[in-house]
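Onboarding guide, step 5: your first structure request.
Type a short instruction followed by the sequence, for example:

Predict the 3D structure of this protein.
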Amino acid sequence: MPVQWLVLIYTLPPEPTRKRAFVWRELKKLGAVYLRDGVCVLPDQPATRQAMQALVDRVRTFDGQAALIEPGRMDELTATEVAGQSVAARGAEYAALRESASQFLDHVRRELRHRDFSASEAETLMEDLRKLRRWFEQIRGRDYFASEAAVEAQAALTECESTLRDVRGGVVAR
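The system replies with structure tokens like these:
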């Protein structure tokens, strides 16, 4: 079954720029793909529909104009290009997450070669790992086309979790 799309068309006054930045950040958090300036799309799902409608309302309170077209169909070529852009964007986000997880693991392993972690240090590391996990969940929440890069990111987080489990259990071999 072809993807049904929500299309948001909006304009905002040029000033103050913080309003434009707010809308752009919210659309980025949702994983929207821009077709052109002021025109972006998302797959039609209950959560995206609700979020896009909230943005329509916000744009209007910012003295802008907004229309939400729901659900819409795109020609196959455009839909494929939009899905590809979305997958590429999520892939870049997952790659950044994997890099952060790798740096985290490198730090933990480097330190373990020299010493054990105190309970408070281990808890700080756990909090850092929870931040990485939240980041992963945020990316996955806007990964509408199940990017294959999610599997690698998940594996990196699992390795971090396993290493920290060993640190907290005191069973890390040097």
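Each response can be followed by summary notes, for example: The chain has a mean pLDDT of 91.
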